[in-house]
Structures are given as C-alpha cells and as structure tokens.
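Re: that chain you flagged

S.,

Sorry for the slow reply, it's been a week of failed gels. I finally had a moment to sit down with the sequence you sent. For the record, here it is as I used it:
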Amino acid sequence: MSKKFSLGFLALFFVTQIGITLKPVQAQTQVPATTPKSICPNQLGAVVDTVINRPQFKRMRWGILVQNLASAQTLYSQDAQKYFIPASTNKLLITAAALQQLGVDFRFRTSVYLSKEGDLHVVGRGDPTLTDVQLIALAKQLKQKGIQHVNRLIVDDGYVRGEVVPPSWQWEDIESDYGAPVNSLILNQNVFSLKLLPRTVGKPLQVIWNDSKEAKHWQVINQSVTVEENQPQNINITRDLQGSILHIQGQLAANSDPEIINLPVVAPSEYFLQHFRDALAAERIIVTQAHVSTDRSQPEQELAAVQSSPLSELVAQMNLNSYNLFAEALLRALAIKKITDKNQTSADAGLEVMKATLTQLGVDSTSYSLVDASGLSRKDLVSPEAFVQTLRGMAQSPVAFVYQASLPVAGRSGTLKSRFLNTPAEGIVTAKTGTMDGVVSLAGYVNSPQYQPLVFSIIVNQIDQPVRVVRQAVDEIVVSLAKLQNCP
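Prediction finished late last night. Pasting the structure tokens below so you have them in one place:
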C-alpha cells in the first residue's frame, strides 16, 4: 500500500432509511464473551463458519469475501461470485462512478433564463439538495435584476428523462419518504410533512400540514386515535394508487410528543412550480401565467442561478445517511457523459456510464446487474466480489480519500454510529450498510493497527430471522476481522 493512501486512510478516522412506521433505536454490537482477543489469518475461516452455520441461519444465503487490500489475497470466501440483493450497499457503486466521472468539485446547477419573448425559464438539473431557501435566493436575484412582472413562467422538467419513480420499486417503498420521486425539479427532497398531535383520549389525532397548499390535493381518512397516557404508540400512513387519499391509522398516547411524518409528493414538478411562485410573490414579482414544460429549451441569457454543495460533500451526505434520492440523482447526472437517443431514459444512460466506469476500475462487468443506483429495487443483483473489486479500485484512485471519507465510521458516524461501540472494530472500520426486508449487507474497509488493511463484503439474503439477529452476526464477523494479527 502506498504511503499516500495509508496517511489518507488514517486521517479518515478522525472525521467525525426512513420509514413511516415508528422504529426502535439500533442496539450496539455485542461481542460474545468467548470470542478470542486476537485471531490469526489461518483461524479466520473457522471463526466465520461458526457464525454463519448457526442453526437459526440454515435457510439464509450468505455471500462473503475478505481480501487484503494491497495484495488482493483472499482470506475468506463464501459464494463470493454469486448474485445477491444488495440493498443500500449498492450506493458504493454509484459513489465510485460519480466521483470518477463527474469529479469532486461537480455541483448541480439550477438556472433561471430570460427568453427573447420576455418569458422566464427555470431549468432544473436534478439537484437533490434544493430547498425553499434556494428558491428564495433565486427570487431575490431576479428582483435585483429589475424583474417586477413575468408574463409567462416556465419550469422545465425535461432535463431528466424517464419515469419519476423507477418502475421496479415496490409500492410500499414509493409511498414512503425514502422512495421519493426523481426528476429535474427536486424540491425539499420531494417530500412534504404532516404533524400529528394527540388530543382527548378516544379522539382522532389532530393533523397539521406544513404546507396548506399541499393539503388541498389530499382527502384524509383519519382512523387514528388518542390513547391513555404512557400507552404504546404506532402510526401508519398509506395512500391510494391514484395518490389522492391518505389513510392515517394507529395511536399516540395523550402525553406523547407530536409525531412528524414525511411523505413523498405525487406531482413534483407542480410542487416546485407552486413553491417558486410563492417565492416570487414574496418579492412582489407578479406572474401572469405559469406552467410546466419538458421541451428542454434553454434561452441564452441566464439571469439567476443557485448551485449545490460540491460532489465531495454530496456523497458524504448520501452514504452517511443512506439517502436514496441522492443516489438516483447522481445516476441521472451521469447521463450527461453519454449522448443518448430520445427514447433512452436518463437512468438507463447513467447505468451505462456507471458500468463503463466500474469496468475501468477493474470491476468484472458480469459480477453485478443493476436497475437503479440506490439499491431500493429488488431487481438489483450484486456479488460480494463486485463490491470488493470496487473498493479496491477506488483505494488506488486519485479520489480515494474522498471516497473513503464518505463512508460511515464504526461507532462514530452515520448508519454505523450505534454499531461496534466498545469493540475492536470501533473507529477502524469504514463501511456502507444495507438493510431492507430479507436483506442485511455491509461492505467496506478495515484498517487495523496490528494487521494490514482489509477490504470486505458481507451480504445476507432470504432472511427469516429478525434483522437485529442477522446484523449482530454480521458485526461479529467484522469484529473478527478487526482482531486479525500476524502470527508466527
């Protein structure tokens, strides 16, 4: 391993899926008392086999690959070349491709143009971080340019081509905030919020909308109830297929705090248009007509613009918090690297660019098959070998430190903050998590002070045990990797 990589990797450790139904806090990793304090490389196989061959795991599929980072020597392998559903660990692949193709300084740009006819065109380019704050900034820029009246306001939602919701996502996902739609004009991560407050015992919960205009689009069927103080609480919200009816069920205790619920918007471009009109109105800019377009027209004169943070910060936000929307937006941003025909979607073009990029990194193109970037689709298939090859390739790239710094650190940050606490893995393992129904996965790096750096991938499919039980087993294996040391 090069000196540059080693120093960058050590510096990393000093850097310090959202559902609708309420979920418990993750418990920290518990290491069995019988686990040895150190493990020789030739003992690792027996240690891992003991974990995955427990009777409660007999119906599950385990895919595991552990290699030395520098030499690619395999220390353990179990079905490493076979396909598994990866869940959010899939984000390792889009992170690698985006950093390689777009560069660490890439920023999404949202622009407002003035046409020869005097119309204002808003061109969105799929910025997943755009909020009302940026819309206000755009409106203020226009005011400073002397804009007081707009005959026609056109918001262009044609930059990103294709369905706003990937067709392979399941219904339970697309009615949750982690399955928000993806388009050119993303605003507030394409979600809106409800606040549910307890009332008198026996009464339905009070529903408060954070956006009164959004409330007009929905019919609410409120079957929730306020229960006695200190009683168990649960909330479940679903919507109908047409996206116009919200069903609220469950209960909150009379003495409980308000519950904030985030839900995906159904018509994201119209949601953007309405909010931008509100921002313009706040600056006393009058709009006579306004509509959404997909013709991809772009007048020459740019009057106002806002940009996202650089890609180096976006991938950190994405991987630390496992934001699906960020991953899908970056996939579509890759499409600008490929000239496509009119019938090709931005997602498909992005997938082609991602595949070509990963191949250049040394990843076997047959070791995975993807339909999205976030890992939310059950049609994504990835082998542990593909993740290990990606991690190894990125470790040797010029953007190695940015890539590794985007990953959660065991016991310290992101989705690993509450895992591996008070274990040998704390602070020395950086990895991307993945969890969905039937899937638990983890892949990343181990930089032990007593052994050479490792790269690993663990994917478990067809889970018939509680997630916490399987995750505990995965963590035991990773702790074993952190205990490796050179033996005589």
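What I noticed first: The radius of gyration is 24 Å.

Talk soon,
D.
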